[in-house]
Amino acid sequence: MTCTDKYAESQDFAEFWCIDPACDDFDEGMVDTFLSIAASDIHVALAGVGACDCTLASWASEYLKKLNVIEAMIVHNCPCGRTHVSDEMKRTWLEWINNQFELIRTSKIDVCAGATAAEYPHMTWAQQSLTDWSAARIVLNDELRNS
């Protein structure tokens, strides 16, 4: 995956927001343009944690698609169909999406396959010293690891 393209298509946008693509007012080209514009914010968040060149986790493509269609609606509210997002609802979605970007930037959500997020449980074991020599070895190893 690279941070160069949108994560959703106009059909995904229409399905997510329950918009009939056959509607006269539905402009597929315009929706694709806004999906591309909205994807740039996703690229910034992913680039900030070095996730532009990784293989996505199995769930990540749908998650990024969702972020893409929600942000595209925030910047462009298609008048076609039965979905109309009010300014108040746009603010709510904007707050949600900004929170998602923050979770990505702080590595609390990691979209790369095989990676674990920042809050994944991590535990190390304390070494026990049974002799003076093993105590010295533990101190030396700690110094080498942490310097």
State the main characteristics:
mainly alpha, 52% helix, 147 residues
Write up what this structure looks like.
This protein has helices spanning 10-16, 28-48, 60-75, 87-105, 132-145. It has a domain at 10-105. Helix 2 packs across helix 3 (60-75) and helix 3 (60-75) packs antiparallel against helix 4. The protein is built from five helices and no strands. Helices cover 52% and strands 0% of the residues. It starts with 9 loop residues before the first helix and ends with a helix. With 147 residues, the protein is mostly helical.
SSE layout and pairings?
Elements: H1 10-16, H2 28-48, H3 60-75, H4 87-105, H5 132-145
Helix pairs in contact: 2-3, 2-4, 3-4
N-C termini distance: 35 Å
Provide the β-strand percentage band: under 5%
Number of beta strands? 0
Following the backbone from N to C, one meets helices and strands in this order, namely HHHHH
Largest sheet: none
Mean pLDDT: 86
Radius of gyration: 23 Å
Query: What count of helical segments does DSSP give?
Result: 5
| Shape summary | elongated
* Parts with pLDDT < 50 across at least 5 consecutive residues: none
| Class from helix and strand fractions | mainly alpha
Q: Which percent range fits the helix content?
A: 40-55%
What is the gist of this entry?
The chain is mainly alpha-helical and 147 residues long. The protein is elongated, with a radius of gyration of 23 Å.
